[in-house]
Design goal:
Elements (H helix, E strand, L loop, with lengths): L14 H13 L2 H5 L32
């Protein structure tokens, strides 16, 4: 890119702020970037309850609804 009176040579002074932002983003894990956790939800996830496996119910033990 050439320089002119209306477009002086770039001194790179604004690149330091951009480099800081890039460095901060590099600290964030990729999983958090792809699937972020909403703020305030950390540690508040529900605890899963155990369930019966599929096919383990005994239907013949239940009274009929006829």
């Amino acid at each position: 890119m050439s320089t002119s009176a209306e477009h002086p040579a770039h001194d790179g002074s604004d690149l330091a702020a951009l480099r800081e932002e890039i460095d901060e983003l590099k600290k964030v894990p990729e999983e958090e970037m792809v699937n972020p956790t909403p703020h305030g939800w950390e540690g508040r996830e529900p605890t899963p309850a155990p369930t019966d496996s599929i096919g383990s119910e005994r239907w013949e033990d239940r009274p009929s609804q006829d």
